[in-house]
Write a structure and sequence with these properties.
The chain is of the alpha/beta class and 375 residues long. The protein has a domain at 65-283: Type I PLP-dependent aspartate aminotransferase-like (Major domain) (Aspartate Aminotransferase, domain 2, 3-Layer(aba) Sandwich). It is 35% helix and 19% strand. The chain has eleven helices and 17 strands. It has helices at 35-38, 47-59, 70-83, 96-111, 128-132, 157-163, 187-200, 268-283, 286-306, 329-337, 361-374, and strands spanning 14-18, 21-24, 29-32, 89-93, 115-119, 149-152, 168-174, 176-177, 183-184, 203-207, 231-234, 245-249, 312-316, 319-323, 341-342, 344-346, 350-353. The strands form four sheets. Strands 4-12-11-10-7-5-6 form a seven-stranded mixed β-sheet, with helices on both faces. It has a four-stranded mixed β-sheet with strand order 1-2-3-15. Strand 13 (312-316) and strand 14 (319-323) form a beta hairpin. Helix 2 runs antiparallel to helix 8 (268-283) and helix 3 (70-83) runs parallel beside helix 8 (268-283). The longest helix has 21 residues, at 286-306. Bound molecules: pyridoxal-5'-phosphate. The site of pyridoxal-5'-phosphate has 14 residues, from helix 4. Residues 95-97, 100, 123-125, 174, 178-179, 207, 209-210, 235 line the site of pyridoxal-5'-phosphate.
Amino acid sequence: MSTFNVYPVYDITPVKAEGCKLWDDKGVEYLDLYGGHAVISIGHSHPHYVKAIQNQVAQLGFYSNSVKMPLQSELAYKLTALAGLPDYKLFLANSGAEANENALKLASFHNGRKKIIAFSKGFHGRTSAAVAVTDNPKIQAPINFADHVVILPFNDVEAVKNAIDKDTCAVIMEGIQGVGGCHVATVEFQKAIREKCDEHGGIYIHDSVQCGYGRSGDFFSFEASGVKPDLISMAKGMGNGFPIGGILISPKIEARFGMLGTTFGGNHLACAAGIAVLDVIKDENLVQKAKELGEYTLAKLKTLVEKGRIKEVRGKGLMIGIELESPIKEIREKLIFEDKIFTGASGANTIRLLPSLNVKKEELDRFLDALGKYL
Ligand code: PLP
């Protein structure tokens, strides 16, 4: 093997996929409830998506941001319409970290400040500014250490009220913490961030990289709070596997030439993928489906909590954390090798489900039955 060895891997080689199913090189079929880490939003190899990418690459795969790009405008129009944010502008990048990097930079350009407030167990990516606001010193190289970042407990309304002041550049938070284990931001917490940012001129950044685009059962997870962030970062499910990220930017922040930029961000092929994803989400009513199936699955799991077989179940929509009293490593191995079901994890004790938004009820039932055997 010649690749740099940074990932522990399962001894499985997927070669084909469709919907929530994967097949390995030996023809073994798996149920994918992990979606390659929340990336597969409309299902693997969705025919509309495949066709859109095939057609686009045959026409024009790439040109730089120095020419007119109607596909970017179409993506921005469809996205802001579905999100109910018609006055927000779209800047396109290539990944979640890059989206957050640009969001943090834009906030600092806007108010000229540098104090950032972030939260415990938060994850925002591995580029310089993004990793500096990520609560995990193990993934911060010495050059990433930043003394302008304050980490507060997640969902602590009083802490937020006390910490946001006239020096605060931005507050960055996940609507549902992914890597942290599916902790859902409360309505009061989001309102407090909004209120204090308004009072002191700070920018509220909502990291929707993992919980975005329908996964929470709303198009964006902040909808339930009734307040809008100034910047919303997105990636993962945005391209259903095609690398694309971006930020939605409130009208209060003005653009100027050269402020942000990228070579690959917003290229033709990425836009074709992004548009196809939005079309499918709309046409197949996937946000509502995620809501209903999420409620169904969470209700089933809560009965296992009541019976004392699970310690806690958290999340919303199709972003579900199942915390056990003991490590889940062995159970996940049994699920994947015996039951042929892919799941995700958060820390040592939490199984994380991140299926495609068009997962079927029977597929979730299959998981619940399999899990039941090991509790
Ligand atoms: N933000 C959140 C909430 C994430 O979960 C992740 C990745 O897991 C990122 C940002 C970084 O995204 P990427 O790996 O595309 O850089």
